[in-house]
Design goal:
Blueprint (H helix, E strand, L loop, with lengths): L9 E7 L3 H14 L4 E3 L8 E6 L4 H23 L5 E6 H13 L5 E3 L7 H10 L17 E3 L21 E5 L1 E2 L10 H4 L4 E2 L2 H13 L4 E5 L7 E4 L2 E4 H9 L6 E5 L8 H9 L6 E3 L7 H6 L6 H14 L4 E8 L6 H14 L3 E6 L17 H25 L4 E9 L5 E5 L5 E5 L8 E10 L2 E6 L19
Parallel strand pairs: 1-2, 1-3, 3-4, 4-5, 5-6, 7-10, 10-13, 14-15, 15-16, 19-21
Antiparallel strand pairs: 8-9, 11-12, 17-18, 17-20, 18-19, 20-21
Bound molecules: 5'-deoxyadenosine (5AD) and iron/sulfur cluster (SF4).
């Protein structure tokens, strides 16, 4: 990133909470601020501007924002006492959902902006400066001018206005292709905070992917809240995710593709076929199911049954025998009985997951489930969560152990924790480290897995490069 010479050097510290889409958005905010002379810094003490890019998905995630804002108020006051300025912005889904509350509870915040408004950040920063909002009142930390609240859902997409992505590209990069959701699961705030479903046009996605690859990216995870609902405009009408992936797979040098997060209802035949066809499409699929009980799936408005999910997994494994599954589970949704919980445990045992995320149900304001009768007691939710997590942990460890002795292609992404080590990721997204030269970074090389640790694998380099990410040994169904 270059800073125009006429601009003073300023620093922005962006703290990201929540999902990978927020990671992508934080990088885009760094991009829009770059022409104003802002360079990113990891050190909050050096920052002239701090942005909290927030997550509203669960209560705990949202609460963190207010405690962090308390700490930032102190920092702002300390800076003001030294005659220095600190601009504070709250972005993301908490800003969208609780903008008015933020300005009331934390008046020292200068800018509150929702996820659809990041392209407007430079204008808002300029308005803060013009309004004389800074320096802040040294007693309260409150800015002098009005707080700027920007939480509209504009008719045009922010993607039409954001500059070319320059931040965040690496050997493995994210690329947001779709945003928002029209599914309205009973428990979820996303349709309210991110708005209705929007897909970026194919040409824009391809241009960004080509740029990333030219800068050294070898693996792209295309992102969306409902990524397999993607239907971006192509040359001859809308294009689904499978066709987009096939087109991305033609980009020379783009060796690996992933997509997340998908919904079982949008797992169509074409997408299943893409798993069979595309060696670039990595064999770990994150497919949230949330519950194994038909009653709960109906209450959650998921639009499918537990058996329908099992059949989808069967079709995917028939298409790609090496495929492993990841998922999300919610424990203790209103109305969940012991029998419903047992059905979830049964589904987990039947399917076998290589990894998964499980969450205690958290009532989110404005969602249908928050007002539902029969909320499950906290202690019961804790108990059920512990049971599900123990089972998922066992399955993850079994899956990791099942890789021992296999040779697989590893994408090396950086140095390891210890001298002489390099670190990378397996096709199944497991972190792996081994002794090897730094020249491996940015390359894909065959590695034999020799051991497992709780959260990673260890391996040894194998002489000679393979052609596929799956060796014959790895094509056996995962014994989990
Ligand atoms: N409570 C608990 N977990 C939730 N998730 C979404 N909303 C809630 C909620 N209200 C989980 C779902 C989703 C993941 C991103 O977060 O499992 O797939
Ligand atoms: Fe939320 Fe995903 Fe359901 Fe959409 S499909 S409402 S993002 S959980």
């Amino acid at each position: 990133m270059t800073t125009p010479p006429s601009q003073p050097k300023r620093r922005v510290h962006i703290r990201t909470y929540g999902c990978q889409m927020n990671v992508y958005d934080s990088d885009r905010m760094a991009d829009v601020l770059a022409p104003l002379g802002y360079a990113p810094t990891d050190d909050v003490a050096l920052a002239d501007m701090v942005i909290l890019n927030t997550c509203h998905i669960r209560e705990k995630a949202a609460e963190k924002v207010f405690s962090e804002l308390g700490r930032l108020r102190n920092l702002k006051q300390e800076k003001a006492a030294r005659g220095e300025q600190l601009t504070l912005a709250v972005a993301g889904c908490v800003a969208q959902a609780e903008g008015a509350e933020i300005t009331a509870r934390a008046p020292w915040v200068d800018i509150v902006l929702g996820p659809q408004s990041y392209h407007r950040l430079p204008e808002l920063v300029a308005r803060v400066a013009r309004a004389g909002a800074l320096p802040a009142n040294p007693q309260t930390g409150a800015p002098g001018g009005n707080k700027l609240l920007e939480t509209d859902f504009p008719v045009e997409s922010k993607f039409d206005h954001l500059p070319e992505a320059t931040q965040g590209q690496g050997i493995a990069a994210f690329l947001t292709i779709q945003e928002g959701c029209d599914k309205f699961c009973s428990f979820c705030v996303v349709p309210y905070t991110r708005g209705s479903e929007y897909s970026r046009p194919v040409a824009a996605v391809l241009a960004e992917a080509r740029r990333l690859v030219a800068l050294g990216t070898r693996e792209i995870s295309v992102l969306g809240q409902n990524v397999n609902a993607y239907h971006g405009e192509g040359d001859n009408g809308p294009v689904g995710l499978a066709r987009l992936l096939r087109t991305l797979a033609e980009i020379p040098g783009l060796d690996r593709l992933r997509y997340t997060t998908s919904h079982p209802r949008d797992m169509d035949d074409d997408l299943v076929a893409a798993h069979a066809e595309l060696p670039q499409l990595m064999p770990l699929l994150h497919l949230p199911v949330q519950s194994g009980s038909d009653r709960m799936l109906a209450a959650m408005n998921r639009g499918h049954t537990a058996d329908a999910f099992r059949r989808i997994v069967d079709r995917l494994r028939a298409a790609q025998p090496g495929l492993a599954l990841s998922s999300d589970f919610i424990v203790g949704h209103p109305g969940e009985t012991a029998a419903d919980h047992a059905a979830t445990l049964a589904l987990i045992r039947d399917v076998g997951f290589a990894m998964a995320y499980s969450f205690k149900y958290s009532a989110r304001p404005g969602t249908p489930a928050a007002g539902a009768p029969l909320q499950v007691a906290e202690a019961l939710r804790d108990e059920r969560l512990a049971e599900i997590q123990a089972l998922l942990r066992d399955q993850q460890q079994a899956f990791n152990r099942s890789r021992i002795g296999m040779t697989m292609e590893v994408l090396f992404t950086g140095p390891g924790r210890h001298p002489g080590q390099v670190a990378g990721r397996t096709p199944w997204l497991q972190p792996i480290h081994l002794l090897g030269p730094a020249s491996l970074i940015g390359r894909i090389a065959p590695v034999r897995v020799v051991g497992t640790q709780p959260n990673s694998l260890s391996g040894m380099l194998v002489a000679g490069a393979g052609q596929s990410h799956l060796t014959p040994a790895a094509q056996e169904p995962a014994p989990v």
